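Box 4.2: Ligand-aware structure prediction
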Amino acid sequence: MRITVDRSKCTALGVCESLAPELFEVQEDGSLIILNERPEGSLCSAAREAVEGCPTEALRIEED
Ligand code: SF4
């Protein structure tokens, strides 16, 4: 899988980071960094939770 973010929708509140800190990090300037765009194993379920938890639907998962 691959995680993508639509930056025009991201409000940088960090719900994804709180659900999956291994995968997401919100910077002080309000930009979102995806630490691992291609999670594997147990991180895949964390990625899906973060995508579902994003309040602005900015995150997407593309299946390989
Ligand atoms: S939860 Fe969604 S809106 Fe919030 S920081 Fe993450 S990607 Fe951006």
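In the box above, the bound molecule is iron/sulfur cluster. Residues 17 and 36 are 12 Å apart (CA to CA).
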